[in-house]
């Protein structure tokens, strides 16, 4: 008997998590590795959030199951947060809380996909989307974007791949891995196209608070009532509040879809860990000062490291506007070093330069590598210096 299902045999491991694990294993062996793999802030969770969590443990509130779809107080906090940052106020039945944005993405796909349904994904895309769609018997339909159009998809490209099976389009702005941020007119065009053709918009807004150098995050769901009704927003506290380990995500959308996702939550994870929910309430509506401090730190790192990376022979980089990744095109660098495969090139950088980054292959990009700058400036400068030495050697 074959033990494993066809489904799991066809799945890829998350390349980001795998790259992070590999770097950690090499470091544990005593190797001198600089880690630019995982997209997670190097800051610890702000004190006020830690204290709210500790209080919920000490006063006994965190001991118990909560309502599967999330504590009413947390939904209220999400709602207040939305009023401030999205300009509209979702009701409790518009909100479901879950174990990380990642699991809620999965719950969305499980809730809407029938076998063979198509979800349009602009490439480069975050690594987990395609596999999650396939795990739910859907078909990812990739639309290529490149440096020439700032990695942004156009309505013409979407229309060219739309079929009767098109169920949803994925929009991740600011984007992981490219850091690009869509502008209002671009979003309006995509939003109106989706409404016209009854295509759901999956808006992964997880980097919305992390935009730099004057760029503005405009939530597509805030553009019009019709677009909002067509959209399921995924967000969470991992990135903006330095809370990746707490695993808090939330989704905001139409009640029917939210109820379906809540049903999936109730039959899989039950509620998100209670202590994390209490922490998230403080994150979303408590003092927001630390978010700005961290945002400024990321901006400074970007502005320092971007020009240095541009000087690495063979690296061509579009300057990101948000998130915390650089996504250089290394086609010329690969040619210079005699590589044709970007994963082999990424491995060589790890082995020979001691810099751990993520191959673009998992993001649907065969000429790029991803470097996370959610780490301290000294490490970043040293890493870029090592890349330069590697390329010049
Ligand atoms: N979406 C994107 C684009 C991401 O980069 C991440 C990173 N983990 C997630 C969703 C998931 O976030 P989390 O599960 O930590 O809330
Ligand atoms: N989203 C982060 C990244 O892209 C964390 C890893 C993951 O969840 O895959 O690195």
Automatic annotation (TrEMBL):
Cofactor(s) required, per the database record: pyridoxal 5'-phosphate
Molecular function per GO: transaminase activity
A Pfam family it matches: Aminotran_1_2
Annotated Gene3D superfamilies: Aspartate Aminotransferase, domain 1 (3.90.1150.10), Type I PLP-dependent aspartate aminotransferase-like (Major domain) (3.40.640.10)
Tagged with keyword DNA repair: no
PROSITE patterns the UniProt entry points to: AA_TRANSFER_CLASS_1
UniProt domain Aminotransferase class I/classII large: residue ranges: 32-387
Top-level class of the enzyme under EC nomenclature: transferase
Keyword presence, Manganese: no
Family per similarity comment: Belongs to the class-I pyridoxal-phosphate-dependent aminotransferase family.
Protein name per its UniProtKB record: Aminotransferase
Native source species: Streptococcus caprae
């Amino acid at each position: 008997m074959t033990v494993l299902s066809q489904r799991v045999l066809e799945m890829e491991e998350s390349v980001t998590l795998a790259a992070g694990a590999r770097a950690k294993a090499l470091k544990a062996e005593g190797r001198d590795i600089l880690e630019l793999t995982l997209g997670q802030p190097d800051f610890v969770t702000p004190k006020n959030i830690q204290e709210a969590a500790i209080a919920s443990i000490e006063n006994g509130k965190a001991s118990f199951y909560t309502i599967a779809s999330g504590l009413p107080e947390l939904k209220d906090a999400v709602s207040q947060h939305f009023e401030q940052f999205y300009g509209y106020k979702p009701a409790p039945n518009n909100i479901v809380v879950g174990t990380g944005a990642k699991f809620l993405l999965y719950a969305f796909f499980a809730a809407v996909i029938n076998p063979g349904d198509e979800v349009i994904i602009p490439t480069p895309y975050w690594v987990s989307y395609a596999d999650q769609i396939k795990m739910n018997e859907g078909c990812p339909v990739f639309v290529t974007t490149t440096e020439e159009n700032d990695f942004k998809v156009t309505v013409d490209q979407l229309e060219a791949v739309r079929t009767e099976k098109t169920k949803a389009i994925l929009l991740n702005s600011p984007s992981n891995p490219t850091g690009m941020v869509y502008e209002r007119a671009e979003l309006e065009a995509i939003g109106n196209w989706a409404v016209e053709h009854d295509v759901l918009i999956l808006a992964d807004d997880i980097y919305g608070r992390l935009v730099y150098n004057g760029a503005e995050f405009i939530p597509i769901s805030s553009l019009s009532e019709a677009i909002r009704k067509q959209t399921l927003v995924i967000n969470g506290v991992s990135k903006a509040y330095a809370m990746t380990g707490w695993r808090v995500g939330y989704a905001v959308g139409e009640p029917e879809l939210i109820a379906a996702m809540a049903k999936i939550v109730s039959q899989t994870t039950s509620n998100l860990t209670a202590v994390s929910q209490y922490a998230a309430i403080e994150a979303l509506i408590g003092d927001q000062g630390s978010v700005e401090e961290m945002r400024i730190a990321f901006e400074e790192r970007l502005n320092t490291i971007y020009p240095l990376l541009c000087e690495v022979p063979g690296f061509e980089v579009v300057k990101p506007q948000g998130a915390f990744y650089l996504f250089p095109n290394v086609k010329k660098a690969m040619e210079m070093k005699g590589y044709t495969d970007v994963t082999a090139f990424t491995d060589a950088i790890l082995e020979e330069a001691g810099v751990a980054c993520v191959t673009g292959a998992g993001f649907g990009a065969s000429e790029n590598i991803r470097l996370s700058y959610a780490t301290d400036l000294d490490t970043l400068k040293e890493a870029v210096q090592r890349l330069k030495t590697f390329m010049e050697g």
